[in-house]
Amino acid sequence: MDLNQLPQLKHTDSGNFFILAGPCAIEGEEMALRIAEKLTSISDTYKIPFVFKGSFKKANRSRIDSFTGIGDEKALKILRKVAETFHVPTVTDIHTEEDADKAAQYVDVLQIPAFLVRQTDLVVAAAKTGKTVNLKKGQFMSPESMKHAVQKVLDCHNENVMVTDRGSMFGYQDLIVDFRGIPTMKAFATTVLDVTHSLQQPNQMSGVTGGRPDRIETIAKAGIAVGVDGIFIETHFDPANAKSDGANMLHLDYFEDLMRKLTQIRQTINNF
User: Coiled-coil intervals in this record (predicted)?
Assistant: First the structure.
């Protein structure tokens, strides 16, 4: 895909990786704007193309009492306000064909969750909106098999598609990133590494997914070293009290230092 097709995306000529970053879920306007302001400032400092991420609703929950959102239209309007306030593109995930048309009115990138990436009707619905489509690699899928998901988008005459690795299941309660898959997927699509979800620890007895945020820097550095095009990171100023995926999010206070280190690695790689 051509990053320049994304509205308002800055720094595309910097030679840097791009980032999809933001909170797991939109919890309210104040929190979204606070996080977006910080991320915009950091991305401008390090010349990193930045897409703000926030789920307008959460459908894949372990328990019925888990947070699912503040209301679809309310959350989508907040995503639009982020885009208008900070002049950045936005991405949100969708779960149904109806979501595709609804979300496309507010955001620039439609993301297909990993558990749903084999759902042809959903992928086609996203592709037909004409928006950029981000396909999360299923935890159960090989890197090679993602070519077929990409082809579904291309067959809809939409060339704006990327794939995102978010780890593969390794037993019942852990994930592992097989970095051999990065060049495999780069051969047929722009490729992103989802650092935070790759460090999830699902299927906990409590019904609340765990995580290893202490390894975010390790996975992110490795991803840049092997040549990913982009990095996906969920971040929050108070992960302990975030309403979704707090256990594996990066604290917002640590985001700038990580971007500084990753940018230095990218510059070194570019000089090879």
Answer: none
